[in-house]
Amino acid sequence: MLLPDIVKIREVAPRDGFQSLKVFLPTKKKLLIINAILDANIREIEATSFVSPSAIPQFKDAPELVAKLPRQSITYAALVPNLRGASDAIKAHIDRLVVVISATEAHNQENVRRSISESIADLDAIFALARAHETPVTGSVSVSFGCPYQGDVPQKDVYNLVNAYISRGATSVMLADTTGMATPNRVEHMVVYFQDKFPDINLILHFHNNRGTAMANLLAAIKVGANSFDTSLGGIGGCPYVPQAAGNLPTEDVVFMLEDMGIKTGINLESIIKAAHLLEKTLGYTLPGQVMKSGPRDPRLAAKIHNLS
Amino acid sequence: MLLPDIVKIREVAPRDGFQSLKVFLPTKKKLLIINAILDANIREIEATSFVSPSAIPQFKDAPELVAKLPRQSITYAALVPNLRGASDAIKAHIDRLVVVISATEAHNQENVRRSISESIADLDAIFALARAHETPVTGSVSVSFGCPYQGDVPQKDVYNLVNAYISRGATSVMLADTTGMATPNRVEHMVVYFQDKFPDINLILHFHNNRGTAMANLLAAIKVGANSFDTSLGGIGGCPYVPQAAGNLPTEDVVFMLEDMGIKTGINLESIIKAAHLLEKTLGYTLPGQVMKSGPRDPRLAAKIHNLS
Prior knowledge:
The structure is a homodimer. By secondary structure, the first copy, chain A, is of the alpha/beta class. The first copy, chain A, has one domain: Aldolase class I (TIM Barrel). Chain A has 13 helices and 8 strands. An 8-stranded parallel barrel of chain A has the order 1-2-3-4-5-6-7-8, surrounded by 7 helices. In chain A, β6, α8 and β7 form a beta-alpha-beta unit. Chain A is globular. At the A-B interface, α8, α9, α10 and α12 of A face α8, α9, α10 and α12 of B.
């Protein structure tokens, strides 16, 4: 059995989680959550998205938020859907860009109102700009494991985007299971394929839990050597008004499981659970995360967590 | 990679799920749910528990329910905590007994108000009675992977109970993660150990999702050859009044994942999702299951599910 010693966790709640909130979360509250996340020793946070405020009003404060982020030895990334977003993000001094294109036409149209080739046409300028400002770029492929409009997604369509990113200088690539259609065999197949094709690239996996398989997918991925995952505090993401709606992998659940398996995440479990409780209190509804409800394995620590919440 | 071709699913919602309902669910409604489960072609159902009605009023209708179960080529099991329960279950013509003892003193006291040795002392009489009535017995070990009072559980304490069951003629043994403390390495270790010790025994795994690891645990188990699992319609179980409280593995999520991996369960996904929707309607609150919300991978089937719910 091949297991990594260390797994890197990117915290995406401030972007992927907040994106689906219907009410604007004030910058000050966002910063309190991000500070709580930092207390748990997370090293990379996807902090916001540089998109049109009319498309996603939640991120209208992106430049202001980035200016106020506590600067420690941490990487702040921002999602950028196009050249305009990339330019704004670089002006705001973000540490890393995450460019996103969907592997299917239908989903790319729905997500960014453009064809895949229109999105790709932007990449040269985005990467040139990023290079000029020494800002690394992660290339993300949405609906890599299945598309809600199309169903199965041919691997070559995922490959074409991955290759478009890498050939332009992306230092990491993300395969996103945007609507939770991945299952373990599909994940293993994809990870092995891209590790083989691009052995020097940091491959990040981003799993949603719409069909209950996200944690099993993570396990399948680490068993074939993947070591880099997106997770979200409290498991937020997806639609907040559907009770128990599936979001991302909860950061604290992933930290709990990996650390119990002897895999280092560098993240403090008690602190990240505290951050999840702060988030739950801030949002005012029950979050999908489980460890934040049950606490660690150790009965004394679990009792402490119960007293905290 | 070693994967089973077929996985056996025991549906436990009518026992493990209904057990935690605070309001008595009328026998007629229980039978409607069980019938919906049967429509999905499930082959074994843990239908009820023969316990003192003062301890768990939900199961006061156990004899009446069992008498009214539709008799097809299906096995109905019942949980029995002691000789009295075993005797009542056999009188009711149940197909299989599930005897339960916890691997830790603290949990056994909390669960059945007896010491482990008091519980074991009942086993000879229970197995003799079962043998006399040609009723097979499954021996279940609660808190096999961790105890909320004690934390880690020594493997030898689990072994002692497994051995107590098998030496008395149990044809299957269940390792239960009663409060969701298992993680994949612990599961693999335990499965490999007991498969090696007792290669001819049907080893059933029963995972709760209190810490978000249940589906990963199932994957870990099948990867070392386990092929028999308890699951619960809609994921019910645990405390119904904690929103999004973790219950069992949702049957429909497990069926979705395994079938997508090419592993046969014999269960019809669309029908089991229908049954989960009936259960949700009957109970009147949102269930933890995810596939019942998102539907199958195929967009046409997913749309159909959305129209159903």
